Amino acid sequence: MSKRKFVKIQTSIPGPKSMELLERRKKAVPKGISNNCETFVKSASGALVEDIDGNTFIDFAGAIGTLNVGHSHPRVVRALQNQSENFIHTGFNVMMYESYIQLAERLAEISPGSFEKQVAFFNSGAEAVENAVKIARKYTKRQGIISFTRGFHGRTLMTMTMTSKVKPYKYGFGPFAPEIYKAPYPYVYRRPDQLSEKEYSQFMIEQFEQFLISEVAPETIAAVVMEPIQGEGGFIVPDRNFVKRVREICTEYGILFVADEIQTGFARTGKYFAIEHFGIEPDLITISKSMGAGVPISGVIGRKEIMDVSESGELGGTYAGSPLGCQAALAVLDIIEDEGLNERAVIIGDKVNRKMHQLAQRFDQIGDIRGIGAMCAMEIVTNKTDKTPDKVAVGKIVKEANSRGLMLLSAGIFGNVIRLLMPLTITDEQLEEGLDILGESVEAVLSSELHLEVNL
């Protein structure tokens, strides 16, 4: 292994101290809560994470897209310190605080839509989606909700029902919430061989139109909830014409269009919100993850006439829009603007894509490379001809990367996609070192005779 400037691996992964904590974890914490990297953090800054055994990693996972501004950004830390010295919590529904109003005003200003908006805050992404559903049902006086195949919207009863992947998210947790319908979502890489991309786009539009005949009447639907780019589903980018047609149908039938920007938002794709790439003005936008730089906070942004339909006390929660979360989010918006993170995401994405395409030229198992901005992924298959998903190889690549000092995540309905969510504050040198480790890990797995035997 070549000499590293940032990564430092001086023990096995996990190291001895982490092994001790793992044993305690097994006794105290249920196995249903998964762990991607079997080690324990000591400190983290920017795109670097040090574990309790003294190993330093480059982070390409970003706490599942939560850290677009990086770990412990000084401006976020100062905002939290200043807030905690004044007060930590009053409950906005008990005694209000200005930061809630400031954040709502700023998000209303930067979000797409040339109309008056209001914003409500909650705790998690799932809560944001749950409340978007509540608001949509209250406004339209309808019950039906459409989500899409391969979509992910959370782990609560409602959002788990809206989510596609059965294992591990839904298996054994039923019965599920009623009046939830799954519509087909484009997946260009896995389109029928006989269809061109243009023909496939039209085919998927027709599939959605037929869905509203065969599965559910549009007059009964309150909202269509769509990830502009599917996150857990494998970083799948839909065709622009498909998204625009869905929006047109929503407008035609009085259905609210909800953009789930929980993983795609806050500069990840090179814009504040990924839906901006499609020229769409959603009725509602759900937000969380990188919004708070690691502090739990989420929200729903929407048209004023829709958001304001609920009566006093019908929305909210004990910790919804906490003072710490609001201050963290205000700092995040400052950082994105002052450090040019939307522009930085495009630069990062270009570098990542060049590396991935270099690897794809060498390895027949890299079937597809996709994404927008710094939301990038590559799909691993047995070979480019058959396109059979290879979850085993991805698991090995992730583990190999961890052992070499790179934090990495998988995704996809088949578990065969490697997704990258590095902080947008990562330096060029850190990015290059991380991409080198990614390349080495891919090569170590895909070139190995062991992997070839598994596929045979």
From TrEMBL:
<dbReference type="GO" id="GO:0047298">
    <property type="term" value="F:(S)-3-amino-2-methylpropionate transaminase activity"/>
</dbReference>
<dbReference type="GO" id="GO:0030170">
    <property type="term" value="F:pyridoxal phosphate binding"/>
</dbReference>
<keyword id="KW-0032">Aminotransferase</keyword>
<dbReference type="GO" id="GO:0009448">
    <property type="term" value="P:gamma-aminobutyric acid metabolic process"/>
</dbReference>
<dbReference type="InterPro" id="IPR015424">
    <property type="entry name" value="PyrdxlP-dep_Trfase"/>
</dbReference>
<dbReference type="InterPro" id="IPR005814">
    <property type="entry name" value="Aminotrans_3"/>
</dbReference>
<dbReference type="InterPro" id="IPR015421">
    <property type="entry name" value="PyrdxlP-dep_Trfase_major"/>
</dbReference>
<comment type="similarity">
    <text>Belongs to the class-III pyridoxal-phosphate-dependent aminotransferase family.</text>
</comment>
<comment type="pathway">
    <text>Amino-acid degradation; 4-aminobutanoate degradation.</text>
</comment>
<dbReference type="InterPro" id="IPR050103">
    <property type="entry name" value="Class-III_PLP-dep_AT"/>
</dbReference>
<dbReference type="GO" id="GO:0034386">
    <property type="term" value="F:4-aminobutyrate:2-oxoglutarate transaminase activity"/>
</dbReference>
<dbReference type="InterPro" id="IPR015422">
    <property type="entry name" value="PyrdxlP-dep_Trfase_small"/>
</dbReference>
<keyword id="KW-0663">Pyridoxal phosphate</keyword>
<dbReference type="GO" id="GO:0042802">
    <property type="term" value="F:identical protein binding"/>
</dbReference>
<dbReference type="InterPro" id="IPR049704">
    <property type="entry name" value="Aminotrans_3_PPA_site"/>
</dbReference>
<dbReference type="InterPro" id="IPR004632">
    <property type="entry name" value="4NH2But_aminotransferase_bac"/>
</dbReference>
<protein>
    <recommendedName>
        <fullName>(S)-3-amino-2-methylpropionate transaminase</fullName>
        <ecNumber>2.6.1.19</ecNumber>
        <ecNumber>2.6.1.22</ecNumber>
    </recommendedName>
</protein>
<dbReference type="Pfam" id="PF00202">
    <property type="entry name" value="Aminotran_3"/>
</dbReference>
<keyword id="KW-0808">Transferase</keyword>
